[in-house]
Specification:
Elements (H helix, E strand, L loop, with lengths): L12 E4 L1 H4 L6 H18 L8 E7 L3 E3 L7 E3 L2 E8 L4 E3 L6 E2 L4 E2 L9 E2 H10 L8 H17 L3 H7 L4 E5 L7 H10 L14 H6 L13 H6 L12 H11 L6 E5 L6 H19 L6 E5 L2 H15 L15 H5 L9 E4 L2 H4 L8 E8 L2 E6 L7 H19 L6 H36 L3 H13 L3 H35 L5 E2 L5 H10 L3 H8 L5 E2 H57 L15 H44 L10 H14 L2 E5 H7 L1 E4 L6 E4 L4 E6 L7 H4 L6 E8 L12 H10 L3 H7 L20 H8 L10 E2 L2 E2 L4 H11 L5 E2 L14 E5 L5 E3 L2 E3 L1 H13 L1 H8 L6 H4 E4 L3 H13 L7 E3 L9 E7 L14 H4 L2 H8 L1 E9 L11 H10 L13 H4 L7 E3 L2 H14 L3 E5 L5 H6 L2 H10 L3 E7 L7 H12 L4 E4 L5 E5 L3 E5 L17 E5 L4 H10 L7
Parallel strand pairs: 8-9, 11-22, 11-23, 12-18, 12-21, 13-14, 13-18, 21-22, 24-25, 26-32, 29-30, 29-31, 31-32, 34-35, 35-36
Antiparallel strand pairs: 1-10, 2-5, 2-10, 3-4, 5-6, 5-7, 14-15, 16-17, 19-20, 27-28, 33-39, 34-37, 37-38, 38-39
Helix pairs in contact: 6-23, 9-10, 10-21, 14-21, 15-16, 15-20, 15-21, 16-20, 17-20, 18-19, 21-22, 28-34, 29-32, 37-39
Length: about 1200
């Protein structure tokens, strides 16, 4: 079931007349032209292919052109109908796909330029109008389309068509789709029928099996996990505990497995990806066979470019070590060619994407496609030449001789030296980890650090109860030994004597005892002889001896029991001694390893506490594992030079035949090429749509060639920002890799699906996946496919990976990165509490509260007016206030961000929920003369990025709330999660604070409570009342000093004749007493003035000074009006004047007055209506 609007800027799109087309027939001349082109294309693909008799088409009955806020005009076609057309022009209905409105033009959609209705209305219509075209045909489809439009848009479609005559569009449909959507889709349709040797060899298998795993995550600090971790990139810091745990799971991945790693903002997703890459590079170098090959994909090009940038930075260390830089020369120096070799990634781009890439920093490759031929261009092909090879070989050997302080005869000699050193470091790393494991285990056992472990053990030895029990046990053991000797000698000897002396079968008391006793004495069985003297009745000799043995054994058992009871102390004592010996021996071996590695205390600011595994492993990351990574990179450069020596003769031979080896798509050539490229750039970075084009090979014979994906060729596929990737788009490239890692966050920006729910469910049912999806989600309801992450309409690749992840953390799906270091704790704690149930661990610390510094969470109340623009929202006065504030506070912003002049774009970014408002802010910044390229946009503009200061423009105003059901940034909570978590130092909300309800439970309410909790969070030096300063014919009076504010407050009380309104959200005893407010109030009331003092009851919580101020007024007989969610600071005197601004009339600190306070005073008849509106705003319905 298809449901995808065509791109009317590309492909085959022709204008049509809808008045004619709705009758079911297209012009014959148009059809002849379309079929002639289709026949030519068919002949190119396959000469023997029969001519097509029908073309799949999509028809838009109308289109229009519109420019939004200074953008170039764009063409829009909001509604489409699917059909097929024959060579006679007759239109036939598509019985499976109903007419639909383009999802991009339906709300909610923050990036929409034009909105024509709500997505929910279309969903409801399709569900209530089951689409069946068994009767009626084309006319029924047209009727359905008309009803759908009117339901969603509100206006009849015919009325719209009158305004947009002759603007219909016909577009060729799915048969003309190219790229990954065609190539891999065709291959994956038959995946289960692929030859048996391919089954289970790719990570796609996990998505085919649709089975959840109960396997618990491995311990990242276990011996096995540490032994598998051998590479690291960053010099400044090692992995955090949760990153190390995730790394352990990646290292343990088997073919066919998928691992999900959930990474909230600022928890080091990029660092982890670099660690995974480094580890793979080193492991492959240690094996000495094929290089490590990684395919890194993402849904959008910006995420791909960000990843490429991080790989370039990883390969260009600031370390002065000779190992830290490439041992290959710059192609510019040798060939005068601009191409980046100082990177670990190769960007697989389309021709259009290359325009946005800096080729000096990103190694970029493109693909020329001619039928089944694939020719690799750019990137590696630009320097895989004889001239560069010769220069690179010499440069490499010279660099190696500098690094090793010895001479080398050949590249092979260098390779062997690198490999030997790498293996030696690997041995030392494993020994290091093993000793640290012992030390940490012992130290944890005694709850001490390394310095005091031995002392703690010796203290326990001194107080061990074995010291007193040892003599007792010694005596018991001697007694036990005596008993055992007695049994083994006298009694058992006595039995032996009986066996040889038959006349002693019976023992008789008294009468013959002397004779018997004498017999035993003669054979030194004295105890038996003595026992006979006590015998009082005849007894068999053997029975007598058995009784004696049993009695003596009982005595032995009693002694043994007493010894065992005391042996507990012996075991404790011996355990302490063993631990002491093990610890001391491990510390000695550790020190020996340190000396071998040249790691001494002076090399580091602080040596780690060896008893803490996280500290120890961080050091090993930054030193040993990083050295191993650099050695491995140089090793692969040597291997690349070896391969080039074999490859160049082939290139030259092909050239002499006028051939091109880069256009060869045979299996052997393609795999050799990719492995050679991977020796320098092991990470191939691409969007999902580009990956399949590059990882193809050609099978078959001339005339019957067929393209086939390189099934499972890559060792690993890593998907970055997997939460933004739709599962039906992102899953296909998993067939190219043995195992997969999905890194992302399901609580941030989600994929924007163009697929309505009813189509999604229909596809699931048609594919027979309803039951499997329901099982994966934990059981469906009413036969519906639950959202297990795989649904094209509501799922994401990240959610799908979490459902089938091979390892899972306790209490969750997949792994979770906890440690957050980007934002101040004051900022990220909002995200942590609102979205992550407190699972994150903020590590940056609380923001310093210094004078002149912006608050970590702040707000500026701006009384603007929002209006709809092209279906989106904009608030021009709010945009102007933001731009003016940025202009006036340029120095403050740069100082807080610790950046020099000219770097304002790196200090601040502005985010809005709406694209129209973003355009308005850009225009306002230009009017302010701000030439810095400040990032302004929706949250998508900063996804994956960060700034020291982020301003969030709410856009809505109090008047706009009457026209919307809910705030857009509450309907999609990920907007606030992304926006807040981009700010490292300060997140500032600019807008009408009356729209923020701190008493609710949604995302904006939680944020509001934090914003309004402290009066110091308010930004006051902003034009908060732009509607006052823009009234025609009125010149506002500006108030800025404390004396001005105090004078106007006194004047208001003293001059009011009829009514006086004082709106002060906060109250404080100090301010009230300083300005004699109680005395002024009673004097005004005595004159008959209606004095209304309004405060915000919600702001009183946890503020004792607020409570004291309120009680002072109430106890003095002042009538107060408690309201909720008050942010205006207003003073209205009769119809005389009105003051609006930032000054809290009854709470602002008079002793430490802020020079940033600002307010405007307006007088005259022109403000009468405004004063009446303000009084109306504070009617009884708004009060608590």
């Amino acid at each position: 079931m298809e449901y995808c609007a065509p791109d009317i800027k590309k492909g085959v799109n022709v204008p049509i007349n809808w008045d004619r087309a709705k009758g079911g027939v297209l012009p014959l001349a148009l059809c002849q032209e379309l079929f002639a082109e289709a026949d030519r294309n068919a002949q190119k693909r396959q000469p023997s292919e029969p001519m097509v008799e029908e073309l799949a088409v999509m028809i838009a009955p109308f289109s229009f052109r519109r420019a939004v806020l200074g953008q170039r005009p764009k063409d829009y076609a909001p509604i489409w109908i699917t059909a097929s057309v024959d060579r006679e022009g007759r239109l036939a209905t598509d019985t499976e796909t109903p007419p639909f409105l383009v999802r991009d033009m339906l709300s909610p959609n923050a990036n929409a330029d034009v909105l024509i209705g709500e997505a929910a209305a279309q969903e409801a219509f399709h569900k209530s109008h089951k689409f069946m075209l068994t009767q009626g045909g084309w006319s029924e489809q047209v009727r359905y389309m008309n009803e759908l439009w009117e339901k969603v848009n509100g206006r009849p479609l015919e009325a719209i068509l009158k305004d947009n005559k002759n603007t219909g569009i016909l577009s060729l449909r799915a048969a003309e789709v190219k790229g990954i959507a065609r190539n891999l889709a065709e291959n994956l349709k038959g995946f289960k029928q692929v030859a048996s040797e391919q089954r289970g060899k790719t990570s796609l298998q996990a998505f085919i099996d649709l089975k959840s795993s109960s396997a618990q995550a491995l311990d990242g600090y276990s011996k096995d996990a540490l032994a598998r971790h051998c590479g690291h990139i960053a010099k400044e810091f090692g992995l955090s505990p949760s990153q190390r745990e995730a790394q352990a799971q990646v290292s343990a991945l088997n073919t066919g497995q998928v691992l999900a790693i959930e990474g909230p903002p600022g928890t080091g997703k990029t660092t982890l990806m670099q660690s995974v890459l480094a580890n793979g590079i080193v492991e492959a170098a240690l094996r000495g066979k094929d290089p490590f090959v990684v395919l890194a994909c993402s849904a959008n090009n910006q995420a791909v470019l960000n990843l490429n940038q991080s790989l370039a930075e990883a390969a260009n260390s600031s370390d002065e070590s000779t190992l830290s830089k490439r041992w290959l020369p710059s192609p510019r120096e040798v060939l005068s060619t601009d191409v980046a070799v100082d990177t670990l990634g190769a960007y697989l781009a389309s021709e259009g994407q290359v325009e946005n890439v800096d080729v000096n920093q990103v190694l970029t490759m493109t693909l020329e496609i001619d039928g089944n031929k694939r020719r690799w261009c750019g990137g590696h092909t630009l320097f895989e030449r004889r001239e560069y090879f010769q220069a690179a070989k010499s440069h490499f050997i010279e660099a190696a001789e500098t690094a090793f302080s010895k001479s080398f005869e050949s590249v092979i000699d260098v390779k062997l030296a690198l490999h030997q050193r790498l293996k030696r470091l690997d041995t030392q790393l494993k020994a290091f980890s093993a000793e640290c494991f012992v030390i940490a285990t012992v130290a944890k056992k005694y709850g001490s650090d390394c310095a005091s472990v031995v002392e703690e053990i010796e203290e326990r030895l001194r107080h061990c109860q074995w010291n007193g029990a040892a003599p007792v046990v010694e005596g018991l053991e001697e007694a036990k030994s005596a008993k055992e000797r007695h049994i083994s000698h006298e009694l058992y000897v006595g039995r032996e004597l009986l066996n040889t002396a038959g006349f002693l079968d019976w023992l008789f008391p008294r009468r013959r005892v002397r004779r018997s006793a004498k017999f035993f004495r003669e054979h030194e069985a004295f105890d038996v002889a003595n026992a006979l003297l006590d015998c009082r009745k005849p007894i068999k000799a053997e029975e007598f001896l058995d009784q004696q043995i049993a009695a003596q054994k009982t005595e032995c058992h009693k002694l043994e029991s007493q010894i065992r009871d005391l042996d507990v102390y012996r075991f404790e004592f011996e355990g302490l001694q063993t631990d002491k010996k093990q610890f001391q021996a491990s510390m000695e071996r550790l020190n020996s390893l340190l000396l071998k590695l040249g790691i001494e205390g002076r090399k580091f600011i602080e040596m780690p506490e060896w008893s803490q595994p996280n500290k120890t492993q961080e050091l090993l990351d930054r030193v040993l594992r990083r050295d191993m990574f650099m050695l491995a990179c140089r090793y692969w450069e040597a291997r690349w030079l070896e391969e080039m020596a074999q490859y160049l003769p082939k290139v030259e031979a092909e050239s002499s035949k006028k051939g091109d080896i880069n256009a060869n798509s045979g299996e052997k050539t393609v795999k050799e090429r990719l492995h050679r490229y991977a020796m320098l750039t092991p990470c191939f970075v691409a969007t999902f749509f580009q990956a399949a084009k590059f990882f193809n090979l050609r099978r078959g014979k001339s005339g019957g060639f067929k393209l086939e994906p390189l099934w499972g060729f890559c060792d690993l596929i890593i998907v970055d920002e997997a939460g933004q990737s739709a599962p039906h788009i992102g899953a296909a490239p998993f067939a190219l890799a043995k195992a997969a890692v999905c890194i992302g966050d399901v609580k941030q920006i989600k994929p924007v699906s163009k697929l309505p729910d009813f189509v999604d469910l229909g596809n699931i049912e048609a594919s027979g996946l309803t039951e499997a999806f329901a099982d994966l989600a934990g059981g469906g309801q009413d036969g519906q496919a639950e959202d297990c992450g795989f649904r094209a309409g509501t799922g994401s690749l990240m959610a799908a990976a979490m459902a089938v992840s091979c390892y899972n953390r306790e209490g969750g799906d997949g792994m979770f990165l906890r440690e957050h270091r980007r934002c101040y704790d004051d900022i990220i704690s909002y995200c942590n509490d609102a979205f992550y149930s407190g699972q994150m661990q903020p590590l940056k610390g609380l923001a310093p509260r210094e004078k002149g510094m912006l608050p970590p969470l702040g707000y500026a109340h701006i009384q603007g007016r929002a209006n709809k623009q092209g279906g989106s929202w904009a608030n021009p006065s709010e945009a102007s206030a933001i731009a003016q504030w940025i202009s006036e506070n340029r120095e403050v912003l740069l100082k807080q961000a610790n950046l020099p002049e000219g770097k304002l774009s790196e200090a601040v970014a502005v985010i809005s929920p709406f694209k129209s408002q973003a355009q308005a802010i850009k225009s306002a910044l230009t009017k302010q003369g701000i030439k810095d390229d400040i990032t302004v946009g929706t949250v998508h503009a900063l996804q994956g990025a960060e700034r020291p200061i982020v301003i969030f423009s709410t856009t809505y105003s109090a008047n706009s709330l009457k026209k919307v059901h809910s705030l857009f940034f509450d309907s999609d909570a990920s907007i606030l999660n992304v926006a807040v978590s981009r700010a490292k130092l300060s997140f500032l909300v600019f807008g009408d604070m009356n729209i923020m309800n701190p008493s609710g439970r949604n995302a904006s309410s939680i944020l509001a409570r934090r914003l309004f909790d402290d009066p110091q969070n308010e930004i006051k030096n902003v034009d908060g009342a732009p509607k006052l300063t823009t009234l025609p014919g009125i010149m506002p009076e500006r108030l800025e000093t404390l004396q001005q504010f105090q004078a106007i407050l006194r004047q208001a009380f003293e001059q009011a004749q009829n009514r006086l309104l004082v709106v002060s959200p906060f109250l404080s005893r100090a301010a009230i007493e300083e300005d004699n407010v109680i005395e002024l109030y009673h004097a005004a009331v005595k004159r008959g003035v209606d004095v209304r003092i309004v405060y915000d009851v919600l702001k009183e919580a946890n503020n004792q000074w607020f409570v004291d101020g309120r009680k002072l007024l109430e106890d003095s007989g002042v009538k107060l009006t408690a309201a909720r969610n008050v942010h205006n600071k207003t003073l209205c005197v009769d119809h005389d004047f009105i003051v609006e601004g930032s000054f809290n009339w009854l709470s602002a600190n008079r002793q430490t007055f802020s020079q940033q306070e600002r307010a405007f005073l307006l007088r005259g008849a022109e403000v009468n209506q405004m004063i009446d509106e303000v009084w109306a705003e504070y009617n009884e319905s708004t009060f608590a």
